[in-house]
Amino acid sequence: MVVDFGRIGGVYKLDWYLSERKVEGKNNNVDLIYISKSTSHLNSQWLKMWDRVSKLSKHTFFWNTVIRINNLFLGYEKYLIPSHGVYLTNKDNFLSDSEFSQKKSEVNSKLKKVLDNHQSNIFFTKEEYSIGSDSLRRIGVPKNTKYICFHSRDSAFLDKVESDNDWNYHNYRDSDITNYLSAAESMTDRGYYAIRMGAVVKHKISTHNSRIIDYANTIYRTDFNDVYIGSNCHFFLCSDGGVSVLPEMFRLPVVYVNWTILKQISTWTLNSLFIFKKFYLVKEKRFMVFSEILDLEFGGIETNEIFSKLNIELIENSPEEIRQVSIEMDERLNGTWETKEEDKELQERFWLLFGPNKIKSPNLRIGADFLRKNKDLIN
After folding, report:
1. What is the 3-state composition of the chain as percent helix, strand, coil, each rounded to the nearest 5?
2. Contact 237, 3 (CB under 8 A)
3. How far apart are CA 45 and CA 229, in angstroms?
4. Angstrom distance (rounded) from CA 3 to CA 117
5. 284-330 pLDDT tens trace
6. Domain ranges (residues) in the chain
7. To the nearest whole percent, how much of the chain has pLDDT over 70?
8. Burial of 99 by CB count in 10 Å (0-12 exposed, 13-18 middle, 19+ buried)?
9. Helices in the chain by DSSP H: which ranges?
10. Measured between alpha carbons, how far is residue 377 from residues 25, 34, 353, 363 in Å?
11. What single-letter DSSP state applies at residue 318?
């Protein structure tokens, strides 16, 4: 299996495979995992932690050659670690009915095993925990004080680490970091600190609240601190970006906001909430309903052209929407959240859009306040 360490979010398939292997028990196979880099960036701490549990090989060219030779032989598939993920992609729509059915069965089988693994596949050493605790104190978080992390995806990271490429087809995933500050303020009112994450970010945040820390723009930002801070928070508030892999890999609660591709909701996260950008059809002067968004094929290099052709304007989540879903997560974690009958009905109606018997984490939900106020989009 080849694993992309050029982006911190490139390790999903390795984590899913290790979860499968853990649930299934020991086997007699000798696994070969080797690394690749889609960008010039490589987080040294991230690589070190995965190397502890999977013994990564850096001889990419050699092993790519071995795989090409292996593929020439009949029955070569049984020697390859399956590369499919735990959700169906747009490309799967082009499969025949029988192929699609088989792929869906394989995906669901893998997802069930991933969901059965409630423990992280990677770990910090005792020494690293000590270093991480000191780092938190240095950036201003007192010892034994809970904090949340927050992050909004922008173009700064990819523009810096791979400046020769045009990455603007990812910009539909961007959002304004200032819209997250109301949620951060509310969390500090509840006794937490709020840490803004990011290795490279476009804008600093402006706040007079000493409990809100713009860690991404401090002298303390390091590869190690990125991983440690992001994987030890009360919950992680983020948009559709690679940084969400930190809490996901450590089985921490995640609040996803400004999500776009409904088909690729992170069904493997054990305790998460989602809310979405709205898709406004300018000519028709209306919002697309969720079923229309599910049918919309986008996400590749042609995304901007698709939106332009259909005259679609993406509307970011408001500060209040982000604040409400963050409060819901905190109250769920603290055991004070009260679910209304309307909320149960709306959740059921939403997930039925994905077809009967949708497999997902039982604690994966759409933000209650968001669904109440957008119930007309469940169609």
Report:
1. 50, 10, 40
2. no
3. 12
4. 20
5. 999 999 999 999 999 989 999 999 999 999 999 999 999 999 999 99
6. 2-116, 139-377
7. 98
8. exposed
9. 12-24, 44-54, 60-70, 97-116, 126-139, 156-161, 181-189, 223-230, 245-249, 290-295, 303-310, 319-334, 341-351, 368-373
10. 43, 44, 11, 22
11. P
Q: Does the pTM of the predicted model rise above 0.85?
A: yes
Q: What is the pLDDT of residues 7-48, one digit of tens each?
A: 788 899 899 999 998 998 867 777 888 888 877 788 999 999
Residues 6+ apart with CB under 8 A from 347: 365, 366, 371
Q: Looking at the chain, how many residues does it have? A: 379
H/E stretch holding 231 reads none
Q: SS3 sequence, 18-79?
A: HHHHHHHCCCCCCCCCEEECCCCCCCHHHHHHHHHHHCCECCHHHHHHHHHHHCCCCCHHHH
Tell me the one-letter amino acid at 334. N
Distances (CA, A) of 87 to 94, 108, 262, 291, 292: 15, 8, 11, 17, 19
- Please give the structure tokens belonging to residue 58: 């850096």
Identify the residue whose tokens are 């029988």.
98
pLDDT tens digits, one per residue of 219-266: 999 999 999 999 999 999 999 988 999 999 999 999 999 999 998 899
The helix/strand/coil state of 193 is strand
